[in-house]
């Protein structure tokens, strides 16, 4: 046999081996294919097609370094084959060498402008470089060459979705599903497009279809969890996140979404733990920091939350959610200017986003511009009519503006939506109480215990809650426990003797600074009401009730408010001591002043408190002497004022001082409640967005017969009510 014949036979044998190798390759038998490719390369080490196919096999089996080396060898053997550059480009893309990948795809297109793989690969790289519009152009060129490729339709849809073209993206995904039925990815992407279009029910169905085809599809699982969270189904979202974490315990997105889901169920400590795990794994993930900030804000750790929002924005200045949350947190800290700056940032980033408009509304509310805040809330309603928070904020502003009927209409719309929060329902109860609808208001006021503000204070006793019933045979012990502020205890302790009249031995738990004063409450001296300070051991009891649930237990209406005063009194020994101190101030009508509340309360203190320099006109009324009732915060030097509060150790001392005065003029703080409970004349300087208990359209109070209101006529304007109080005071002096 001649050498030529031997060569022909050898080539034929190699060709047969090559056909066998490609057959194994196509049939999904990589080990057999690789062995045969390597036999060919032993005989012909630089055979370009074999190098290319072996490189393709290495790429398909995840051996990227080997694939890159083989693709380069193939190019070295044959530099004008476009497919070889496409292979190397795909490998470099997967290795995140984006510029090198783009160079390869462009080289392939230079060699063959009709290379589908070149256009598709370049488009994929451009997407990852955030050059999405250019990627769309490349995808369209690839489709012009091969309209039947499902992958190209699918990837084009993804790019269009990023360009906020969900309708066009949906058409691409539908086409991909038609061309390649039974694949999970196009169905998953279709779900994303449906969600972007607001078609949540269809999106949920699509996510579940994708998961039926591929139960391990993490993105589908997590995006379905996000959809459920937005729909208020936090427990179901939690279960999905835990499915992912069972397979990948360190999956940052799953941990983050788990934290959000736990937060949505009120499990704040567990939410913080999950988010801290995510933060430890990805300390520079801005979205993790932002969500952790939300949890800390719910725990009243505002300073920490603000710091986290700032960190998130430093890492990602384009994260509008963090800007919105920072604006809300700063508004809650009474930093109206800071809140506005970050709300403006959110609006620049997402001018059409309802939440950005709500952030600006929060900032305007903090500045006392309720009309402006209402306009922003209504704009949010227009942009997101199914967003409960938008209706809730509009309702709250309408309530602040003294328009309760309109407020309740928006509260009702918010309450009917799936994302209605306990805060919205509690605020609706306050609007009902403000409007005088005590029957419905007291009932819904119980939702306070579900809010972030109050849930940590909820008592979880095993003993049943008292609902107002009379004691059955045998005397039962009823615990009435303090909640919220000092003024709230002073207002609602009046119910303790009434509970005792229903046959119960009452244990009244109160804050320690009130303990000595409340010994004067009817029933205490007789032993029907026993006092205990908050934090001290409680005696055994059979029933319990929070103090501010007592109006519900008694079915209190506007006509049945137990308004008999005084129900508290100063101790005679204290009276004697304070009588001498007040008398030393000289003659004249003795007026006590309180101008500030507790800045740590949930209501922005600046709205109810007064700059004491504004009270100076009261000192100019002839025949009066002013006394400070302000425990903290010195009066300005220019205000003629006697300050004896350094000698007041508790509220019993303050009660004795008030009892020596002719009148108390106070903002909405515990001093006003104390004066009313003592039956002393008290003038309330009341803010425009009045608290529910002072009602609307009246200058008296059903709770305190001796109280008279001087209300702001516009938000933030104290000069008018102070001027009216000065006129009334002058007339009193003249008639005295």
TrEMBL record:
TPR repeats lie at residues 82-115, 150-183, 184-217, 286-319. Transmembrane segments: none annotated. One of its GO terms (molecular function) is identical protein binding. One of its GO terms (biological process) is protein O-linked glycosylation. The keyword Aminoacyl-tRNA synthetase does not apply. Keywords: TPR repeat. InterPro entries: Glyco_trans_9, OGT, TPR-4, TPR-like_helical_dom_sf, TPR_rpt. SUPFAM superfamilies: TPR-like, UDP-Glycosyltransferase/glycogen phosphorylase. PANTHER family: UDP-N-ACETYLGLUCOSAMINE--PEPTIDE N-ACETYLGLUCOSAMINYLTRANSFERASE 110 KDA SUBUNIT (PTHR44366). This is Flp pilus assembly protein TadD.
């Amino acid at each position: 046999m001649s050498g030529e014949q031997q060569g022909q036979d050898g080539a034929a044998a190699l060709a047969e081996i090559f056909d066998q190798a490609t057959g194994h390759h196509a049939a999904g038998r990589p080990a057999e294919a690789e062995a045969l490719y390597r036999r060919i390369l032993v005989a012909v080490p630089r055979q370009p097609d074999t190098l290319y196919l072996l490189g393709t096999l290495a790429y398909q089996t995840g051996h990227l370094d080997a694939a890159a080396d083989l693709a380069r060898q193939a190019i070295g053997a044959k530099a004008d084959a476009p497919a070889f550059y496409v292979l190397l480009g795909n490998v470099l893309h997967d290795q995140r060498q984006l510029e090198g990948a783009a160079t390869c795809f462009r080289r392939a297109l230079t060699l063959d402008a009709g290379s589908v793989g070149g256009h598709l690969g370049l488009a994929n790289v451009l997407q990852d470089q955030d050059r999405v519009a250019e990627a769309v152009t490349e995808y369209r060129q690839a489709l012009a060459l091969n309209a039947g490729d499902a992958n190209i339709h699918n990837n084009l849809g993804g790019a269009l979705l990023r360009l906020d073209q969900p309708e066009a993206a949906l058409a691409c995904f539908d086409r991909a599903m038609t061309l390649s039925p039974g694949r999970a990815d196009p169905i998953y992407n279709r779900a994303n497009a449906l969600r972007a279009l607001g078609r949540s029910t269809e999106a949920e169905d699509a996510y579940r279809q994708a998961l039926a085809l591929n139960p391990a599809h993490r993105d589908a699982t997590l995006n379905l969890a996000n959809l459920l969270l937005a729909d208020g189904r936090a427990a179901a979202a939690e279960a999905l996140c835990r499915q992912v974490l069972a397979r990948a315990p360190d999956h940052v997105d799953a941990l983050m979404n788990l934290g959000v889901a736990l937060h949505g169920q009120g499990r704040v400590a567990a939410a913080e733990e999950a988010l801290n795990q995510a933060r430890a794994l990805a300390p520079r993930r801005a979205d993790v920091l932002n969500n952790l900030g939300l949890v800390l804000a719910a725990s009243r750790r505002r300073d920490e939350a603000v710091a986290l929002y700032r960190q998130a924005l430093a890492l990602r200045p384009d994260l509008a959610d963090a800007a919105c949350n920072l604006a809300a947190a700063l508004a809650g800290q009474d930093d109206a200017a800071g809140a506005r700056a970050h709300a403006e940032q959110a609006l620049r980033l997402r001018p059409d986003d309802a939440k950005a408009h709500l952030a600006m509304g929060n900032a305007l509310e903090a500045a006392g511009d309720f009309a402006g805040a209402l306009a922003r809330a209504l704009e949010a309603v227009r942009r997101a009519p199914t967003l409960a928070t938008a209706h809730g904020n509009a309702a709250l502003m309408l309530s602040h503006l003294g328009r309760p009927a309109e407020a309740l209409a928006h509260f009702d719309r918010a309450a009917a939506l799936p994302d209605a929060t306990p805060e919205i329902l509690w605020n609706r109860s306050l609007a009902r109480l403000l409007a005088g609808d005590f029957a419905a208001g007291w009932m819904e006021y119980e939702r306070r215990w579900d809010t972030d503000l109050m849930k940590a204070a909820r008592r979880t006793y095993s003993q049943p809650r008292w609902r107002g019933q009379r004691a059955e045979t045998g005397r039962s012990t009823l615990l009435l426990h303090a909640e919220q502020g000092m003024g709230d205890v002073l207002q609602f302790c009046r119910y303790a003797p009434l509970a005792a009249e229903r046959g119960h031995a009452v244990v009244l738990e109160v804050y320690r600074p009130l303990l000595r004063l409340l010994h004067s409450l009817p029933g205490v001296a007789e032993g029907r009401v026993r006092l205990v300070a908050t934090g001290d051991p409680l005696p055994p009891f059979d029933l319990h009730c929070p103090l501010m649930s007592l109006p519900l237990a008694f079915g209190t209406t506007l006509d049945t408010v137990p308004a008999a005063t005084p129900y508290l009194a100063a101790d005679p020994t204290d009276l004697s001591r304070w009588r001498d101190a007040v008398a030393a101030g000289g003659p004249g009508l003795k007026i006590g002043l309180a101008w500030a509340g507790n800045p740590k309360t949930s209501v922005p203190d600046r709205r109810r408190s007064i700059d004491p320099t504004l009270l100076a006109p009261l000192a100019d009324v002839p025949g009066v002497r002013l006394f400070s009732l302000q425990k903290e915060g010195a009066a300005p030097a220019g205000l003629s004022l006697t300050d004896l509060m350094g000698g007041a150790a508790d509220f019993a001392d303050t009660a004795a001082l008030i009892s020596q005065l002719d009148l108390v003029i106070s903002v909405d703080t515990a001093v006003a409640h104390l004066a009313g409970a003592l039956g002393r004349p008290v003038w309330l300087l009341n803010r425009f967005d009045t608290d529910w208990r002072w009602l609307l359209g009246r200058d008296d109070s059903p709770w305190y017969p001796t109280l008279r209101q001087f209300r702001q006529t516009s938000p933030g304007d104290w000069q008018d009510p102070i001027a009216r109080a000065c006129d009334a005071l002058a007339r009193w002096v003249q008639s005295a």
